[in-house]
Amino acid sequence: MTLTDVWPLFGLVIRTPRLELRLPTDTEIGSLAQVAADGVHEPGQRPFLTPWAERPPQERARFVAQGTWSSLGGWEPDDWGLGLTVFADGSPLGVVWVSASEFGVRREVSTASWLGLRHHRRGIGTEARLAALTLAFDHLGAAYATSEAFPDNAASIGVSTKLGYEPDGISRDVRDGEVLVSHRLRLGRERWEHNDRSGIEVDGVDACRSLFGVS
Q1: Which CATH code for domain 3-212?
Q2: Which one Pfam family would you cite for this protein (predicted)?
Q3: For the chain, which residues score pLDDT lower than 50?
């Protein structure tokens, strides 16, 4: 029996013209952690509600490794978060998260992502999110996808706009004793269908359906 037999998510792979999205091996987690340690955003920027990327390099690396393990260890079909490592030519570039609660009923996912700083501004974020959403909409039957971004996070908002997300109000959270407002964005199936995903392949999803709470 292999690890994929026990945990079929390790056999789930999404491929695009440039990228491969899948769960990392333990060795690859170390390489992914190094990408985070090398930097995720420019100094002075604060794109995340949980300011993990502002921590010292070693703490950033540990945060990424721990997040990878904890998401798998705490997985439940009605409450899951899939952290897909984004690879190009075998090297990790960052992570796209697809998360949901009661997905079998609600058919709604939320997405979040980060890329190593040196991989920004190359269209990788858009391509990686399109790949993850192809899994959600075309293979798992999602009806909606949501995302949130601070008003000054132009890169994240730009990706959402390209893929057809629409404004969905605001959310208010507290970070370091300060109230922060985020733009909520929502993508419905009708607008999703306008996206070209002809160059995207998804393998291994059938064995994972029960883990996502769908048949």
Answers
A1: 3.40.630.30
A2: Acetyltransf_3
A3: none
